[in-house]
Specification:
Length: about 110
């Protein structure tokens, strides 16, 4: 059996192979980006759960102290200490100290 391939056939085959390679590579990039996005979202959800749980504990302790009418110094400690921690956390969260941008190979920024 004899194949009769012209230059046009060879260029068309090369074009198809190149297109398939580019589509495959773009799909891999898109999948990697989606995985990175999902990983970041799960971190945020985990943090949110811990924040809600700790705020429930703090509110519960404050509720008990206020309900049983503790002395003024105990009331100030129970209400003031969580306020200090919250202020520190919010200030720290809103202060940008580093850039968490992932660098790619060959990127010189």
């Amino acid at each position: 059996m004899e194949l009769d391939l012209t230059a046009t056939h060879l260029l068309a085959g090369l074009g198809v192979a190149l297109t398939l390679g580019l589509v495959w590579r773009a799909g891999a990039r898109r999948a990697r980006a989606a995985a990175d996005k999902a990983r970041g979202g799960s971190r945020l959800l985990s943090l949110m759960g811990r924040v809600v749980a700790m705020s429930g504990v703090i509110v519960g302790v404050q509720w008990i102290v206020i309900t049983y009418r503790a002395s003024t110094p105990v009331l100030l400690v129970v209400l003031g200490l969580p306020a200090l921690f919250a202020a520190y956390t919010v200030t720290r969260a809103l202060t940008v100290t580093t850039s968490d941008v992932q660098r790619r190979r060959g990127d010189r920024r």
